[in-house]
Amino acid sequence: MVIQSTQRQRLGFLLYGVAALIFLYLPLAAVTLASFSQKRYVSFPIARYTTQWYEKAFESLTISDLFWTSLTIALMVTAICMVVGFFGALAYARYSWRGRKTYQKFILLPIFFPQSVLGLALLLWVNFLGIVPSWQTAIAAHLVWIAPIATLIMAIQAYSFDPALEEAARDMGASGWQVLREITLPLLLPGVISAGLFSFLLSWGNFPLSLFTTGADLTLPEWLYAKMVSGYSPLVPAVGALTVLGVTVFLTIALTVMWLYRRGRRVARRQVGP
Amino acid sequence: MRKSLRRAGLLSSLPILALLALVFVAPLLVVLGFSVMPTKTFTLLQWPTLENFGTIVGQTYYKSLLWSLGLSLATVVALLLICYPLAFAMAKVFGVFTNVITVLVVLTLFVSENIRLFGWVLVFMKGGLLSGTLKAWLGLEIGSLLYNVPVTVFGLVYVYFPFMLFPLTLGISMVPDELRHAAADLGASRWTVLREIDLPLAMPGILVGCMLTFVLCTGAMLESKLLGGQKVIVMADEIETAFTYGQNWPLGSALSVVLISLIGMIAVFVLRRIDLDQILGKT
C-alpha cells in the first residue's frame, strides 16, 4: 500500500514538527537569554549574566501598576466572555432556530477584522458617547475580539452534546432553570473552562486592542511596546520573559487542575458503578 | 417542544448579539459616519462630504494598500507551503505528538505579539543571537538582517503561523482515510491522491486558513514596524498615523472604511462557501 507512511517518512515528519517548534520558540529563548545580560544594550554572545533586571522589575512601582491593570482587565474579560459565550454557544450549536446560519457567520466576523482598527473604531465610539477612555474601555475593546473566540470554543463542546439528556430532564418535570444548572452547564463545563482560559490569556497578552483604548492607563504589553519603540529600557527583556513565565505557570496550574478533576471524576464514577 | 427550542435559540443568542452591537457594530457605524465628515474635524454633526476619499485616491495611499495586499499574499503562499506538511502530519501521521504540538503552538499565542517579534529583533540584529554567535564560533560577519521587506514577511509568517496551521489540520482531518487508501489501491500516485482527494476534500479548511491569515495580515502593522523598520508603510500604519500624529479622524476613518470593506468582501466571499456546522461539529 502506497499510502501508509514508512518509518523513514514518519521520522521526516517528526523532524519537521520539531523544527517548527524550534522556529516558534527561538524568539522567546532570545528574549529570556537577553534578560540575563548585564549590559544595558544586549549583544550576543552574552558576556556576563546577572539577575539584576529581574530585581529591578520586581521593585518597580510602575511595573506592579501595569501588572494589576493587565490582570484586572483580563479577569473582567474572562468573566464576561464565559457568561455571554456560554449562551452564545448554545445558540450556535445546540438549538436550531431561524437565523442561526446568519448568526454563526456574524459571530465570526469580528475575528477577521484588524484589531488595531477595531480599537480605533471603539475609541471614536467612546468619544462620541462622551466617555473618557481608561482601562474600563479596554475591557470593551478586548470583548469585541475575544468574546467570539470564547463562543466558538464552547460551541465546539456544545456540538457533541446529546439533546436527549435535556429533554429527559424536562419530561421528568425539571424547570428550564433546573435543566440549565443540572444538565447543560455540567456537560459543557470542559468547554466553559477552556474558553475561560483562552479569554484570560488572550486578553492578558493582547496589544493591538489595548493600544488606542486604555487612555491614560497602560497594560504590560503596551508598556513593553512603548519601550521597544522609543527610550529602550533594559527591563524590557526581563518583563517580557516574566510575562512568558506567567503564562506558562498559569497554564500548567490550569491543565493540572483539569487533569486532576477529570481523574477524580473517573475514580468517583468507578466507585459508584456496579 | 420544537417551538420552545426555537425560542431558546433566539433568547440565548441575545446577550452576545447585544454585546457585539454595542462594541462592534456601533463603533463601525461611527467610523463610517466620520469617514464622510470634513477633514480634521472631531464631531459627527456636519454636512457629509466625500473629500476624504478624494484625498485617498489623489495621494499615494494606494502604495500602502498595494504593499499590504502584496505582503499578505506572499505570507499566505509561504504559510500554505510551510504549514501543509505539518498539518498533514498532525491530522494523519502523528498520534500523541499532535496534542503536544497543539499545546505548544497555542502557548505561543498567549505571549504578546510584540514580545515575540522583539525576540526576532534580538535574533536578527547586529550582534544579535544569530550574527553574534556566528561571529564568536565561526568568525563570520553577517551584520544586521533587519529592516527590509523579506524580514517583514518572515515576521508575518511567524505571527500568523498558528492561524494557518489549525484550520489546515481541521480540513485535512476531514478527508476520510478509506478514500485515500482506495485511490492508492487503484494505482493512484501520491501526487494524484494529493491533487484529486486531499486538496478538494480539505478545501474548507484550506479556504478558512488562507482567508484568516490574509485578512489578519492586511491589518497587521507591528511586523513592518519592529522588524521591517518601516521600510514600507502598510495600510494599518497609515490609519494609525492619520488618527494619532495627523489628528485627522475623518481621513483615518475613510482609510479604515477602505480596508474594512476590502476585508469584509473577502470574508463574506469565503464564509458563504463553507458550512460551519460541518467544520466545527466534526472535531
Please specify the SSE layout and strand pairing.
The complex is a heterodimer of chains A (274) and B (283).
Chain A: H1 7-35, H2 52-59, H3 61-94, H4 100-108, H5 115-129, H6 135-159, H7 163-171, H8 176-205, H9 208-211, H10 220-229, H11 235-272
Helix pairs in contact in A: 1-11, 2-11, 3-6, 3-8, 5-6, 6-8, 7-8, 8-11, 10-11
Chain B: H1 2-35, H2 51-58, H3 61-93, H4 96-109, H5 113-124, H6 129-138, H7 149-173, H8 177-185, H9 190-201, H10 203-218, H11 222-227, H12 235-243, H13 249-271, H14 276-281
Helix pairs in contact in B: 1-13, 2-13, 3-7, 3-10, 7-10, 8-9, 10-13, 12-13
Description:
The complex is a heterodimer of chains A (274) and B (283). Chain A is mostly helical and 274 residues long. Chain A has a domain at 63-236: MetI-like (MetI-like fold, Orthogonal Bundle). Chain A is built from 11 helices and no strands. In chain A, helix 3 runs parallel beside helix 6, helix 3 crosses helix 8 and helix 10 packs antiparallel against helix 11. Chain A has helices at residues 7-35, 52-59, 61-94, 100-108, 115-129, 135-159, 163-171, 176-205, 208-211, 220-229, 235-272. Chain B has 283 residues and is mainly alpha-helical. Chain B has a single domain (52-281), classed as MetI-like (MetI-like fold). Chain B contains 14 helices and no strands. The mean pLDDT of chain B is 84.
